[in-house]
Amino acid sequence: MEKKKNYDYTATKRNASLKKRLVETGGVRMSLNLDGQRVNKIDALIKNGRAETRSEMIRLLIDEAEDL
C-alpha cells in the first residue's frame, strides 16, 4: 500500500491571495496575545452561539465597539 501524500500545494497561493486582499482593503494581519481569562471569555461567547471561531468573535466584538 502506497503512503498517501498529505501536502497542501495551494497554501502559498491562498496566503498570497489573502495578503493581497488585505492590502487592497487597508487591512493587516495581526498576532494577538491574550491571557487565559480573556480566552475563556471569548470561548464562552462562542459556546453561546455568538460566533463559530475565536477570530470571528474578536472581529464581531470590534464591530460592536464601533457602534458605541
Topology, number of strands: 0
Helix percent band: 55-70%
Overall mean confidence score, pLDDT: 91
The secondary-structure element order is: HHH
| General shape | extended
Derived from helix and strand composition plus strand pairing, the structural class reads mainly alpha
In words, what does this structure look like?
InterPro entries: Arc_rbn_hlx_hlx, Ribbon_hlx_hlx. The longest helix has 14 residues. It contains three helices and no strands. The chain is mainly α and 68 residues long. The model has no long low-confidence stretch (mean pLDDT 91). It has a domain of 37 residues.
Main traits of this protein?
single chain, mainly alpha, extended, 68 residues
Provide a concise account of the structure shown.
One of its GO terms (biological process) is regulation of DNA-templated transcription. This protein is mostly helical. It contains three helices and no strands.
How do the helices and strands line up, and which of them pair or pack?
Layout lengths: L10 H14 L11 H12 L6 H13 L2
